[in-house]
Amino acid sequence: MPLGLLGLSLLLAVLLAVHVVRTGREMYWLWIILMFQPVGGIVYLIVHVLPDVFGGTTARRIKTAARETLDPHREYREAKAACDDTPTVRNQSRLAQAAIAMGRYDEAERLYFDAAHGIHAEDPALLLGRANALLELNRPKDALEVLETLGRDAANGRTPPVAVALGRANEALGRIAEADTAYQWAAERMPGFEGLARYAAFMARHGRRPEAQEALEEIDKRLLKLRGPFAKEGRRWRDLAAKALAEG
Questions:
Q1: Is there a domain that residue 23 lies in?
Q2: Who has greater pLDDT, 156 or 208?
Q3: Which of 46, 79, 152, 227 is 20 to 30 A (C-alpha) from 174?
Q4: Do 174 and 201 fall within a single domain?
Q5: Do 129 and 184 belong together in one domain?
Q6: What percentage of the chain carries pLDDT values higher than 70?
Q7: Tens digits of per-residue pLDDT, 23-32?
Q8: Measured on CA atoms in the order 144, 149, 154, 155, is the torsion positive or negative?
Q9: Is residue 170 in some structural domain?
């Protein structure tokens, strides 16, 4: 690195280190800034300084994305600490969501089960969360029982996310007609790409390749209009559908 740039990098690192101390940030940022010049300083600027200066939704998204990249387990640790300290239904649900994001489905299912008692026994968010965890654990029969309980709630038990879970459970149990009805209903109503992608994957798995290909093309058409995190999320679901078509 040229001497001038090295000097600027050191000056930036010192200024950011002062910012860390004065604003009470976590001390590990000092190590990141000083050991990984200038990249560490740039990351700190994105995570802490720019959001403080500009505020707003976009800045918060940048901050969240940077934190998740640097420390993907942070939300789980913080949720677990909160739950251990105060095991409320809200904290249990937060920890369950963090556990699912890390693929810890056994833990998530247990947390949702423990939370869904008393006045929360039929809480739609807890029941759907548990059903999805059960599906990931390859326990579709148990998931279907939970979803049938949820289905008794006319207002919250008949939503696109519930229909997707019903489709997955019924398909895993060999109830193809019921699965088709649920997937199709969700695909027509669910915002985003999950409903259509899961329906496309279902059709690919069950000998309906032309329809699955048509659904995949519709996903590709929609993706062309998106940018940023929405496009990234859409591509994730698009890949699920494309994989099923490739394997079918």
A1: no
A2: 208
A3: 152
A4: no
A5: yes
A6: 87
A7: 777 777 788 8
A8: negative
A9: yes
Domain of residue 140, residue span: 111-190
pTM score, two decimals? Answer: 0.72
Phi then psi for residue 75, to 5 deg, are -60, -40
Q: In terms of Cα–Cα distance, which of 106, 209, 137, 202 is closest to 163?
A: 202
Residue ending a domain, among 190, 205, 231, is 190
Dist. CA 197–CA 170, nearest whole Å: 17
* Residue 135 buriedness (CB in 10 A; 0-12 / 13-18 / 19+): buried
d(CA 136, CA 119): 27
Do 146 and 159 have their domain in common? yes
Which string of DSSP letters, residue by residue, matches 196-230? HHHHHHHHHHTT-HHHHHHHHHHHHHHHTT--HHH
210 Cβ neighbours under 8 A, 6+ residues apart: none
In a domain, 223, yes or no: yes
